[in-house]
Amino acid sequence: MNIKITSQNYTAQVKNVIDTLNQDLPLLFNQDISYDIYTPDIEFIDPVNRFKGKFNYRIVFWTLRFHGQLFFTELYFDLHDVQQTASDIITANWTVRGTLRLPWKPQLFFNGYSTYKLTSEGLIYYHQDTWDRSPQAILKQFISS
Q: A Pfam family in this protein (predicted)?
């Protein structure tokens, strides 16, 4: 079912999505995010995952928090900016950095960006993360620090 919304309401909804991402993303390793800006069939893709559905999306964020607290003494998601880059696209640029819970305290560091695609109602139906290096290169940081 497609619900028609006015241009003014769409603009307000996009602002709400950007505001929500700005609030949620910097804290995603510490607390849950808001899921009301996503469609029930949200599709998520990153270099190691691909799935659909809000339930699976929630599990990814729970898993990030769980593993972050388990394996890291410090873990940060530095959000640099969130921008509407097209009428139906929002992009967020970020850095993940942390210290692994090992005696030699290896450091994790990589940059990336998230591309969010919006429905005509201004809800996110697609989220793709792109990293500045391969998953293997990220893992190598743990043994070569």
A: DUF2358
